[in-house]
Design brief:
298 residues, alpha+beta, 5-stranded mixed β-sheet
């Protein structure tokens, strides 16, 4: 017998090995439908992962941070497939979840623009609606390592886990394309349309990173501001910070700039859209200051 412990402390017994998806289905059809991955003895795994021995297991859904990141990682995979279908000569490079969304890099002879971006997004939505399966070519490969994944008949190397099928990817959008060689497409992805619509609301604060090295810290600052009631968004594009500041200064009241010094010191630099410099502050101090001027909770 295989004994599986659940997060609520209950215990279930099974007389043969079963996949994470089958385990979720044994609990209820609703949970199986919502499952995007599993956590087996604390390790994230795909829904097709086979449970062959006693283990602690929980089902991951898009309502938790790990599940949302898996949705975004899978969106990057769908983006790669859409680009390859529309531009067969494109050479795919890196792609992953990033902040509130995802990105994928590729090399193509011609430079793509916003019109092309709309066509790529439309193809992604078609692929999602078609409900292609996403399968790991080597299901027993160690978690967290690069593996070959099959999205329908399209194969791409990626770090998993990924969602079991594209039907759960229903609230995403592409918003930027940058670079020349390689080019990088950025998008956002959420668990439902309401969350996507909320993300599209004009932010009070834009967090701007210097480069990719500050992405994780910049996103953590963004989440801290959101918890305090601030409409905050992070621009993690790999572009010159002056370009990003100039772009957002036209629309966003306050900018939070993060470079290596800010990341290492655990603080941020704050300025207004008009160029007024408020200096460096701890993240908690920024939250309190925004609350004092009536931004937080608006």
């Amino acid at each position: 017998m295989i004994h599986i412990s659940l997060s609520d402390g209950s215990l279930r017994e099974y007389d043969q090995p079963l996949s994470v998806y089958e385990f979720a289905a044994s609990i209820g059809p609703g949970l199986a439908k919502a499952a995007v991955a599993g956590r087996v003895d604390g390790v994230l795994v795909d829904c097709e992962f086979m449970i062959e021995a006693d283990a602690r297991v929980s089902i991951v859904t898009p309502q938790e941070p790990d599940g949302l990141e898996i949705l975004r990682r899978s969106c990057a995979l769908v983006l790669a497939m859409a680009v390859k279908q529309l531009y067969p000569k494109a050479h795919l490079q890196a792609g992953s979840a990033l902040g509130d969304g995802f990105f994928h890099e590729f090399e193509l002879e011609r430079h793509l623009d916003l019109v092309d971006l709309a066509a790529i997004e439309a193809r992604m939505k078609t692929l999602a609606t078609t409900n292609h399966s996403i399968r790991r070519r080597r299901p027993t490969a160690p978690a967290g390592q690069l593996s070959s994944y099959l999205l329908g008949d399209f194969e791409c190397v990626s770090t998993g886990p990924h969602v079991p099928a594209t039907r759960v990817l229903q609230a995403f959008a592409l918003d930027h394309i940058s670079g020349t060689s390689p080019q990088r497409i950025y998008g956002t992805c959420w668990s439902c349309q309401e969350e996507l619509d909320n993300w599209r609301a004009p932010p009070h604060v834009m967090i701007v990173s210097m480069d990719d090295r500050q992405a994780e810290y910049a996103q953590s600052v963004t989440e801290a501001l959101r918890r305090s009631g601030v409409r905050a968004r992070a621009d993690l594009r790999n572009e010159k910070v002056r370009h990003k500041i100039r772009e957002h200064s036209q629309q966003v009241p306050y900018l939070v700039v993060i470079g290596e010094k800010e990341k290492e010191g655990g603080f941020v630099s704050v300025r207004s859209r008009t160029g007024e410099d408020f200096g460096r502050m701890a993240v908690d101090a920024v939250c309190n200051w925004l609350r004092s001027i009536g931004i937080a909770g608006v």
